[in-house]
Amino acid sequence: MGMEEVERIKTLFKECGIEPTYLEHEPVLTSEDAAKTRGFELKQGIKAIVLTNGNNEWLIVDVPADKKVNIKAVAEKKSWSKGKTRMATPEEVLEKTGCQIGAVPPFGHKESIPIFVDEAIFENQESAFNIGLRTHSVKIKTELMRKVFQEKNATFGIFSS
Fold it and tell me: Strands 115-118 and 58-64: what pairing?
């Protein structure tokens, strides 16, 4: 659990010709802890949130760490019931991504899960996020993330508030 995801992310970056800075640090659970540990502003973090519609359909929504996912906007875009769309439980997150909450990367999960990317992520020059373990993260130029998200067929839009 976790190290497999770290290696998957590193391989994906290599395949895209991207060389980010890899960081190892004390375990972090919250976005606030991660920003302090990495020496970044909170808004530079990317939170990967797993959502479900209760019918075994899943989605990863990537938003800046200083924002919250707008579940209604996501449900509307996916044509999911707004009343049934919810954040996945810690157990569901682990099952779907192979990662604990707080370590889920924005892409590169063990299962192919659709990805929604909030446009506000691209307001930062650099971004940082965990890559499968709470002790491993990456620092990368945000424009390079657009290339990775496009490679993963992500949907771009306004999904945060």
Answer: parallel
